[in-house]
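Dear Dr. H.,

I hope your travels went smoothly. While you were away I took the liberty of generating a structure for the chain from your last submission, since the lab meeting agenda had it listed for discussion. I wanted you to have the full record in hand beforehand rather than looking at slides cold. The sequence, exactly as received, is reproduced here:
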Amino acid sequence: MKVVSLMLVLLGVGCLSAAPNIVVILADDLGCRDLKLYGGWVETPRIEQMAREGITFTDFHANSSVCSPTRAAFLTGRYQQRVGIVDVIVGSREPDQGIPAEVTTLPEVFQKNGYATALFGKWHCGYPDKFNPVHHGFDEFVGLLNGAADYHRHGSWRVGLQQEKVEGYSTEIITERSVDFIRRNAKEPFFLYVAHQTPHNPYQTRKDTPENRPKDWKQNRVGEENRPRYQEMVRDLDRSVGEILDTLKSEGIADNTLVFFWSDNGDVGMSPVERRLRGTKFGHYEGGHRVPAVAWWPGWIKGGRKSDVFAMGFDLYPTFTELAGIADDNPDNLDGKSAASHFLKDEDFPDRDIFFGYEPKLGTAMRRGKWKMILKEGKAQLYDLDADLKESTDVAADHPLVAASMREAIENFKKTVVPGS
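The corresponding predicted structure, in token form, is as follows:
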């Protein structure tokens, strides 16, 4: 606690009476265009409340446009290529895919410093027992190991290392377990990772129980048939966020808890209105990896702020540990950078080259300030995001020096950021 207090004094924001709690709420396949907060089509009053009372990030990105790499980067604070997770892990068919035991994860740093730690929901960072969350710093784990599953039938879920049939609707189970964990640990510091399945397919609402499903229903299809279900699933996610915020308040620990809400990649194209960003999940255009993100910490984060800093999922590792005063226990090889002073004091967050690699399927994308390059099979596309956020006009031929420099940086990245590096 003394370390935490000193750190916050140095940041110029006073000191806490106890080590701060961290709650990370991760949506699955939720894009900016899905939320009215970002000009989209679904009202989410509790997430909008978070935004009014906290920071809305307009240029926050997942490290990948698919699930597993983003989660691996967040949990390790490093490029996902370094742990060999560049694509979706397809359950038991890939027994050697997962976060290696020797890699220090974010929850392990919190656990080492006396925090209670828990993950409820989707793991997707390794299916065999050796990759289970309980071996990566989580005291408690209840959820699914793979990328998608039925929302009502949970025969393959795990409670720790044990396979158990957990009764209920996925969003409800995850919420109830999270609320219970907060209540049980309200007097001690905790790190809670709420990894929702919503709104990933299959598009099943609470009403879509096995016995109520139409025989000819295409439950994974993106389109008009499932759009109302998708909307209800997002609203259900929003209610879950509200229950967690309400629990923090009722336990009297809201002003000692940072809550960060975001998504693991862009949307799937369910929106019925014109999309501000080009591309969706599985793509390197902005719609594939620019995601909604909101930070909430009453009394510490000034409400109603909008931040246009360019930040990434792997930046959360050093940010959270610095805010908790335990960054000295971070590995010295993190790729992410701490944004703690930006969260608390709105200080600038430095620009740097960032890479979105998804080899070999999609090639590699790179961001350098306003410039965005996508390089695949030797062909480069270059976009000026300040002038063309929708990435509609390739300007590589108009800026040959920029294009050449970024192409060289991408090639160097591909050579150096490899498993074990």
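Two observations you may find useful: The longest helix spans residues 227-250. The longest strand covers residues 21-27.

With kind regards,
E. W.
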